[in-house]
Write a structure and sequence with these properties.
Distance between the termini: 33 Å
Shape: globular
Strand order of the largest sheet: 3-2-1-4-5-10-9
Structural class: alpha/beta
């Protein structure tokens, strides 16, 4: 899938950097997600397994990470081999499945479905809808979905010229809603869908109580707010959640 198979190094370097953006990625996401102890979790677009390992650390009883990138899944599996420091071989597994697959169904529905970036890989509204149905089909009634996604309200034209130097990545404008995520010589196509389009897709999957959660720093890092006001005032990402009610 794009540069994730051909050239993942710049992305991985940025993903594991100590840039304060890492706090924005996880603070609200984990707050909304809540306790996963003892739960079965399906992690979509899992990449190299960064979130699956966090979920396992949090006490999840079983985590299945799915992705379409052979390269990234290979890295995830390597880090999950018995004896590796971040390995959870007894309760973490991976599979090469797209979240647009209309047939896949986990052997038992998950208590929680997560996705650290997903909907913006959909190339059409039909694919967004397929993702919504995939999520709903694989959730128990009362189960929750939490994702970190491109903010539908983000203004791509209002980003500072030195955004990559400040945050580690930037965006290229192609033909809205089509854009690109750029990290050095790494580039992947992305799409920005509206709030209504996201919500309609989740409703197709039987999800309700859909909420949008703006990003923030944790209480102990409030001193970062001033330096990061430029991003928080026009954040490119946001957390989205819903509950399976049908």
């Amino acid at each position: 899938m794009a540069d994730y198979d051909k050239n993942p190094s710049p992305y991985l370097q940025q993903a594991f950097s100590d840039n304060p953006y890492r706090l924005l990625e996880l603070t609200v996401f984990m707050e909304v997600l809540g306790d996963v102890s003892g739960k079965r979790v399906l992690d979509l677009a899992c990449g190299d397994g960064r979130l699956t390992r966090i979920l396992a650390h949090g006490g999840a009883a079983e985590v299945l990470g799915l992705d379409v990138s052979t390269e990234m899944l290979g890295r995830a599996r390597e880090q999950n081999e018995r004896g590796e420091p971040e390995a959870f071989p007894d309760n973490v597994t991976y599979g090469e499945i797209s979240a647009t697959d209309d047939m896949f169904q986990w052997v038992e529905p998950a208590d929680v479905v997560t996705a650290m970036y997903l909907f913006h890989y959909a190339r059409s509204m039909e694919e967004v809808s397929q993702m919504g149905r995939f999520i709903g089909r694989n959730l128990v009634k009362g189960g929750r979905f939490v994702t970190y996604t491109i903010n539908p309200d983000y203004d791509f034209t209002n980003a500072p010229e030195d955004m990559e130097a400040r945050i580690g990545f930037r965006y290229g404008i192609v033909d809205p809603p089509a854009y690109t995520l750029v990290i050095k010589d790494f580039e992947v196509p992305i799409w920005q869908w509206s709030r209504e389009e996201h919500e309609e897709a989740l409703k197709e999957g039987g999800l309700r109580n859909i909420e949008w959660h703006p990003l923030k720093f944790p209480p102990e890092k409030q001193d970062l707010n001033e330096d990061w006001a430029w991003y928080l005032d026009n954040s490119s990402c946001i957390v989205l959640s819903g509950e399976k009610t049908e």
